[in-house]
Amino acid sequence: MQKGFYIDTSRCTGCYSCVAACKNWNDVAPRVSDTPGTPGPMWRRVTNLESGAYPNAKIVSVSLACMHCAQPACMDVCPVGAISKRAQDGIVVVDSDKCIGCHYCFFACPFGVPQYGTQGTMEKCNYCLDRTEKGQDPACVATCPAKAIKAGTMTELAAYAGERAAKVLAGSTQPSVLVSP
């Protein structure tokens, strides 16, 4: 029962509440150096996509985190087996005690998800397992004021997305993300 995310770009306002909630809940460092403005790891990011030209220019905000891929490229290249995929829900997790910080996973991930914190080891979205195992939504979902992010099994999300003409994010790694235009 693969779990994933549904992103409704028509609802996302680019407020970054999901980013702040993720960093706060998971105690993710605000920056990795003493240089002001240098961001720390970003387990969840808001990307703005621009299209068209004046007078029909359009900017769409998309909140993305780890895609918890069905075929995770990061896991396949990890030389020490620090990255694994949970059998019960398909969530891709990192064992920071095993990670040697080689960055192979960063180069293999087509979505640029792996981040490196102050300890030099890989960090990324863990689907807020401490919350979801208690039946709560991930912090990003619980905090989104526009209800632009949903979490659940891919079957549940596909049924919900089918009502909204959403599409599965494409990629050779089979990301577990549905996006609604």
Number of helices: 6
Counting DSSP E segments of at least 2 residues, the number of strands comes to 10
The string of secondary-structure elements, in order, is EHEEHEEHEEHHEHEE
Q: Beta-sheet strand percentage?
A: 15-25%
* Major pleated sheet: 4 strands, mixed
- Provide the helix percentage: 10-25%
Which spans have pLDDT < 50 for at least 5 consecutive residues?
A: none
Mean pLDDT, nearest integer? 89
Overall spatial form: globular
With strands numbered from the N-terminus, the spatial order across the biggest sheet is 8-1-10-9
Structural class: alpha+beta
Distance between the termini: 25 Å
Rounded to an integer in angstroms, the radius of gyration calculated over CA atoms is 16 Å
Structural descriptors:
about 180 residues, alpha+beta, 4-stranded mixed sheet
What does this entry look like structurally?
- The chain has 181 residues and is α+β, with helices and mostly antiparallel strands.
- Helix content is 20%, strand content 23%.
- The protein contains 6 helices and 10 strands; from the N terminus they run E-H-E-E-H-E-E-H-E-E-H-H-E-H-E-E.
- Strands 8-1-10-9 form a 4-stranded mixed sheet, with helices on one face. It has a two-stranded antiparallel sheet with strand order 2-3. Strands 4-5 form a two-stranded antiparallel ribbon.
- The longest helix is centred in the N-terminal third of the chain and has 9 residues, at 17-25.
- It starts with a strand and ends with a strand.
Sequence-ordered SSE layout with sheet pairings:
Layout: E1 3-8, H1 17-25, E2 45-51, E3 58-64, H2 73-77, E4 83-85, E5 92-94, H3 104-108, E6 115-116, E7 122-123, H4 129-132, H5 139-143, E8 149-153, H6 154-162, E9 167-168, E10 177-180
